[in-house]
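ugh ok fine here u go
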Amino acid sequence: MSSLLMSLESARKARHLRQTELAEMLEVTQGHYSKVVKGVVPLSASLEMRIRKWIDSQGVEFDEQDRARRMKELANSIHSQCVALMRLADIQSPDP
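structure:
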């Protein structure tokens, strides 16, 4: 489970929310929420954004290790999205 999903589950449990309640806030079914948390289905970019927004709105505190992990995950996500955008725009990636 990614640190993002661990943070999500930790925050959900700390607020005594059922999966159904949080799933509704995140605009997914409880079944889909459960599958994402268990790693059965991949976390979509749009759901990831909604999760990050919800976590940020809850004032969840992260220690330095979690913060570093989140930054790395975000950088990887941005990179993947930029690559996908470049493919859609038919732009060649510059050589490293």
